[in-house]
Write a structure and sequence with these properties.
- It is a single chain.
- The protein is α/β, with parallel strands linked by helices.
- The chain has one domain: Amidase signature (AS) enzymes, CATH 3.90.1300.
- The protein contains 17 helices and 13 strands.
- It has an eleven-stranded mixed β-sheet, sandwiched between helices. Strands 4-5 form a two-stranded antiparallel sheet.
- α3 packs antiparallel against α4 and α8 packs antiparallel against α17.
- It starts with a helix and ends in a 16-residue tail after the last helix.
Length: 473
């Protein structure tokens, strides 16, 4: 790698150390990231907006603060991106849709964006999303197709696919994603990066998501330590979110020094109902063995629930219908055809259907709380397959069968239960594509998830693996 690419791929923790020493400047790092975007984004389409002038101005201000010995917050000068679902003052939030008026006005920061700015982050731009974040791959009528840095014929997943592609390609150290059914963990698994879906309410949201209380906001990074740092910045109460958890005083970075020795881990290869690609199954089984070697007590055990997809679909489809309820016929004609099909299905959902799904969701949450009385963590694959071709909802056979969510059976259950869950790389397929491992913790125990992920990162056979970007030029 060139010096510029080395800086672009440097971890946030290293950058902060170098800034403090004065050996590297935030301006140098921001320029390296902008160079990386200039060089590779045309092949990946990870950004809907890049503001070089703003980013360099913020980097210069950060440089002055570090020189004066007065850094601003926890991530001063660290290049960061925001998914184009979250409001960002002065920049359009288009949500992947032609229906959104670019003119705005854009006068507010979402809580997560505000926390980043208060802590000195250098926000370089906004990353792509499918329209309103509705699906697990990233393409939209507004921005087109986003591609995977490991193989541009493949999807990076979604809906935080732009953030994941940018992360894997060295286009920033810290990235905000959203996750309503796997939208942080899916693209993290497909791109060989780390993504954490915090406990619901850990990161405040405003405006409230139309998808309701399945929707989470969290960090996407290349290492667990960076995600812990970012969660420390993002967590805490915000008066605009009545569902936010109380202000969290946890030092998540310091907490990573904890041990997993003696921790009780349930290893579920398929949750009792999923079909899993053999290479994914083998990589996750090896990961379970590594946890055992590190001193955890690992038992193969399914949590004991049936596939909750019918519950999720009713709640998710209803949210989509509510979000677009006032759209004109012209607007509806311009949205993603797949999203239109979801709206048609949603129109058939009755109030009784919705209430029954809500009750079934509560039963699932109770079951998982009881399950975690015996286990500290649940270990599963992140996804059932490695990445597939861009421009599709699923691999060809699944799409033709109408089973387009069958490849993501491990993520949405834990949006329903609101538990913390992460995806961490655990292998590489024979086709050279990343494989992800999911760790799920009991409600509000984000620390145990991050500690376990950090321990695994230390022994992972693919720790630090990066895509070969020379293929993109």
């Amino acid at each position: 790698m060139s010096m510029s690419e080395n800086l672009a791929y440097a971890s946030a923790l290293d950058l902060l150390k170098w800034y403090k020493e004065g050996s590297i400047s935030p301006v140098e790092v921001t320029q390296a990231v902008l160079d990386q975007i200039s060089k590779y984004n045309s092949a990946l389409n990870a950004f809907v907006l890049v503001d070089e002038e703003y980013a360099l101005a913020e980097a210069r201000a950060s440089e002055e603060r570090w020189r004066a010995g007065t850094p601003k917050g926890l991530i001063d000068g660290v290049p960061t991106t925001v998914k184009d679902i979250l409001l960002t003052k002065g920049w359009p939030t288009l949500r992947g849709s032609k229906s959104v008026d670019v003119a705005g006005p854009w006068e507010d920061d979402a809580p997560a964006v505000a926390r980043l700015k208060e802590n000195g982050a250098v926000i370089v731009g906004k990353t792509t999303t499918p329209e309103f974040g509705w699906k697990g791959v990233t393409d939209s009528p507004r921005t087109g197709i986003t591609r995977n840095p490991w193989n541009t014929d493949m999807t990076p997943g979604g809906s935080s696919g732009g953030a994941a592609a940018a992360c894997a390609a060295g286009m920033g150290a810290l990235h905000i994603g959203t996750d309503g059914g796997g939208s942080i963990r899916i693209p993290s698994a497909f791109t060989g990066t780390f993504g954490h879906k915090p406990s619901f309410g850990r990161v405040p949201a405003w405006p409230a998501s139309p998808f309701g209380s399945v929707a989470h906001i969290g960090p996407m990074t290349r290492t667990v330590g960076e995600a812990a740092l970012m969660l420390q910045v993002l967590s805490g109460a915000d008066s605009r979110d009545w569902g936010a958890l109380p202000t969290d005083e946890t030092d998540y970075v310091q907490a990573l020094s904890g041990t997993i020795k003696g921790k009780r881990i349930a290893y579920s290869p398929n949750l009792g109902y999923a079909s899993v690609h053999p290479e994914v199954a083998a990589a996750v089984k090896k990961a379970a063995e590594l946890f055992e070697q590190m001193g955890a007590v690992v038992e193969e055990k399914d949590p004991g629930f049936e596939n909750p997809l019918p519950i999720f679909n009713i709640l998710w489809f209803s949210g989509a219908h509510f979000a677009l309820r006032n759209f004109t016929e012209k607007q509806l004609s311009e949205i993603d055809p797949g999203l239109r099909a979801v709206l048609e299905e949603a129109s058939k959902i009755t109030l009784d259907d919705y209430m029954e799904a809500t009750l079934a969701r509560s039963e699932l949450g109770i079951k998982m709380r009881q399950f975690h009385e015996g286990y500290d963590l649940l270990l599963t694959p992140s996804l059932s397959i490695p990445a597939f071709e861009v421009g599709k909802l699923a691999p060809q056979a699944m799409e033709e069968a109408g089973a387009w969510v069958d490849w993501t059976p491990f993520s949405y259950p834990f949006n329903l239960t609101q538990q913390p869950a992460c995806s961490i790389p655990c292998g590489i397929s024979s086709d050279g594509l990343p494989i992800g491992l999911q760790l799920v913790g009991r409600m509000h125990d984000d620390v145990s998830v991050l500690v376990a992920a950090n321990a695994f990162e230390g022994v992972s056979p693919v720790a630090g693996a990066l895509p070969d970007l020379s293929k993109l030029i």
